[in-house]
Amino acid sequence: MATSPSSHSADGAGTADAQAQATPAFSPLYQQIKGLILQSLQAGEWKPGEVIPSEMDLAARFRVSQGTVRKAIDELAAENLVVRRQGKGTFVATHAEQHVRYRFLKLVPDSGDRDSEGPAGREVLECRRLRASADVARALALRTGDPVVQVRRVLTFGGVPTILEDLWLPGNAFKGLSADQMAAYQGPTYAMFELEFGVRMVRAEEKIRSVAADAAQAALLAVAEGSPLLSVERLSYTYSDVPMELRRGLYRTDTHHYRNELS
Amino acid sequence: MATSPSSHSADGAGTADAQAQATPAFSPLYQQIKGLILQSLQAGEWKPGEVIPSEMDLAARFRVSQGTVRKAIDELAAENLVVRRQGKGTFVATHAEQHVRYRFLKLVPDSGDRDSEGPAGREVLECRRLRASADVARALALRTGDPVVQVRRVLTFGGVPTILEDLWLPGNAFKGLSADQMAAYQGPTYAMFELEFGVRMVRAEEKIRSVAADAAQAALLAVAEGSPLLSVERLSYTYSDVPMELRRGLYRTDTHHYRNELS
DNA sequence: AAGTGGTCTAGACCACAAC
DNA sequence: TTGTGGTCTAGACCACTTG
Fold it and tell me: What keyword terms does UniProt attach to this protein (chains A, B) (predicted)?
């Protein structure tokens, strides 16, 4: 190993560490290794979809046993930052995988079969650069007035307009994002963010409410004014808990529902 | 170890196993151990809140190394079936813990602080035994007409009626459940189910929709008829994926929201 | 001091994939 | 055949809790 507070011996190598503070915030070796791997992921040393070095290589690099690297990677895999494939290696997770096509979208057709309705239709209504309002700035950890990109679009499933949503993105990280780009890219928007802007969304939080559609919303979703809609506010984070996208969606739930698993 | 398909050696004990089928559905030793522990949990050998034997004891009992038992327990802990406490032991998880008071309830006040509003008020409107309708029977894996218990109640937070919900429970497992019992018990209803009926809910699935309040619902929740409400249908399972409760809730989301974390 | 879970190591072997 | 992740073991030591 190298730095950080710790105390492990058994190896005879890190035994001479400083051990400065009284409560040096003990963190196990594998957590420190996890942190180092995380740094490399964040720095883009390995890009989404690529393999990372084998456990043996990483063990040699960090001067720890394979088991310790293994435990670090186990946690990264549990957080969906990395995907293990036996016999092949460990890969940086990406939103561009064919399997779970929309990892953050919990709206599913009542039939339960998301494949049956074919690919989602996308219509971008708006894509413009503007200055962050107070609430958008707070959510994205910016200052009021900082540049942001706002996108408004409608998603259509099986021919039915089902989702109306607004996205707000930090202007600096998403320079040059255009309506064409939003509309053209096949596959998840988050996959495009990875490819075009090097921004990978790692986790998100959602606040869900029931609301009544106003006239404009009703028109865009082809429902009656006052119809109940699901309001889903999503804040997505990159590495290190940096918020990178605020999304406010209105979901029709007459033929779809929001599915959640508790444990 | 004892039975099951596998092939592990390194121990010299299980080497003489049958190895009957062509593809004997290989499952690693720790998975088999996990299954055995699961059986003991299900059989009630250790009750919610109690300690289970130490890793060393279990290792001796199953004739495997501590590390193998450890990995089995790791998975059980990840599934919230069991809770580890360093220096004390491993405990059977329970809904009666003071910490996370309502493990399955994702509705939180907009302030974010669930403690600030004090304990939930409960009013049981109905508690009766009846015969399962077709849809209730299907959800609970019963036959139409089988006995079920239905409970209707209103939950109040900070003086405001916020949740109106119906519960359906298999009549056989919940013989003798009364309105008094539902109303009297302090703490989570699921904790009462553990204590009084030996039924422990392990996981659940929810389907969420936005709906408009009808006249009766509006009156009970003190909102205007037609107000948007969150419809939350929850199916809860005990061990071995046996469904044991269907719950249909209507949530007011004017001062609360449904909070979800994605990863 | 004794017991429990938590960490770390080292080495062996298995299952899977690719060359 | 080689290299990857996956499993299993055995033993040492650390951190936390309790008597």
Answer: DNA-binding, Transcription, Transcription regulation
